[in-house]
Write a structure and sequence with these properties.
The protein is an all-alpha fold. The protein has 7 helices and no strands. Helix 4 packs across helix 5. The longest helix is centred in the N-terminal third of the chain and has 9 residues.
Length: about 100
Amino acid sequence: MTAMHRRHGRAVGPGIAANPDTPTALLRTLVTGDHNAATLRAVARHPAADGPTLTACLRDRRARDRAATHPALPLDRLRALLADPQPPTTPPPTRPSRSRTCCA
């Protein structure tokens, strides 16, 4: 997986982070290098993510919610999230509009 990340970069980050066998060290590499928001969100859900890795995920508003529920998030980071006067708001999921046509 490390070789794949080196070769393909940020394009494969979310897939690598979603793999349950991804080691903690690689997860940390994914969030410290060139990454995208989808990678942060996938890492925040990963059971092997450690405290520093989850702290990096707090940069993305949607990844914050996931990282906040992770048991490895450091307590001081959780306290900071609770004390935030403007907590992140997760927008409701959008559904594509469907035009309904009726056949007579």
